[in-house]
Amino acid sequence: MTKNELEPISPVEAKEMYLDARKNEVSQSTLDGYHYRLKHFIRWCKDVEGIENINSLSGRDLQRYKTWRRDDGDLKPISLEGQLDALRIFIRWCGSIDAVETDLHEKFEALMPSLDKNDEQSESILDTDQAKALIEYQRKFEYASRPHVIMEILWHTGIRLGALHALDIDDYDEENERLIIRHRPEAETPLKNGKEGERIIALNAEVCRAIEDWQDNHRHEVEDDYGREPLLTSRNGRMNRSSIRDAVYMVTRPCYYADCPKGRDPDDCEAAEYGGYSKCPVNVSPHDIRRGSITHFLTEDVPEKVVSDRMNVGQDVLDKHYDKRDEEVKVEQRRDYINGI
C-alpha cells in the first residue's frame, strides 16, 4: 500500500489506539512503560516537526527523531535503544492498520545504537554498606515509620515496586513470618509477571517486627477502593506507586542518614526540598534497591536458583542485569566451593 492509499491518523490517536489494543495483553506496568517510551515521539511529532498525520513518516524522519531524542534526553545508548525498540514495535503495529507503510519498521535495523557489554548493564545500585547504614539509622531514629518499613521490605525481599504496592495486611503471615505475593489485576494491583509472579517469601525477625509495629502504631486504618486493607497506607487509602518511589528517593539520599559525598549543604540543596528528592545525584530508585538486594544475597553465597525464585527473575536475566558482584568476589566464592569438595 502506497502513502496515498493510507488512512490519515494523528500521532496521538495512533498511540491511544495502540495502547487500547494492548491493554488486555500486558500488565498495567508494561502498558505504562509503552506510554512513557512513546510520549517523547508524540512530543517530537507535535512540537518539533508539526506532524499531524503519520501516513507520511519515512526512514529519514525516524533518523531525525533518533538524533533529537538522544540529544534532548541526554540518553545513554541502552536507554536510547529501549525507546527506539518500543517505537519500532509501535510503528510495526501502525503498519498493520494502514497508518504507515507496512515495511517502515524495517528501517529501524540501521537506527539501533551499537551496545557493548557495559552499555547493556545499569550500574545504579544501593550497595550493602549503604543499605545497612540507612536501615540502622531508621531502626534507631525512625523505627516502624512508613519509610522504614518500605526499606526493610525492599532490601530483605528484593521485590519490585509493584509487588510492594500490592501488599495487603492479610498478605503478611505473622505466624509463619512470611509475605504472600499475589496477582490481583481486577483490583488494580497486578504483578509484572502476572500469576507467575505469585510466591511466598520468608522474612527474618527484624523485618517482621518492623511490619507489626508499623501496623500497630502508625498505619492508617483505611481501605482502598476495592474494600481491601493495604499494608502501606496514606490517609486516603493505599499508598500509590509514585509516593513509594518518592519515599525511597527521600531516604536514600546520603544526607538523610550520613554526610553528602558531594559536599553539598542540605540547606541549599534542591534535592533536600519536598518534591525535589529525585534530583539528588547519588540517591537510588526502588529498582536499584532490588538490584542491590539481589547482589547482596549472591555475595552471601545464597545459590542463584534460590535468589532467582525469591526475587522472581530468570537466571539469565539475573546474570545479565542484576548480578553486580565484581570478578574478585566471584573468583573467591568459586574457590570456597571447590575447596569444600
From TrEMBL:
GO molecular function, one term: DNA binding
Lineage: Archaea, Methanobacteriati, Methanobacteriota, Stenosarchaea group, Halobacteria
Annotated keywords: DNA integration, DNA recombination, DNA-binding
Domain Tyr recombinase: 121-335
Gene3D superfamilies the UniProt entry points to: 1.10.150.130, Intergrase catalytic core
GO biological process: DNA integration; DNA recombination
Species of origin: Halostagnicola kamekurae
Pfam families recorded: Phage_int_SAM_1, Phage_integrase
Entry protein name: Site-specific recombinase XerD
Domain Core-binding (CB): 9-95
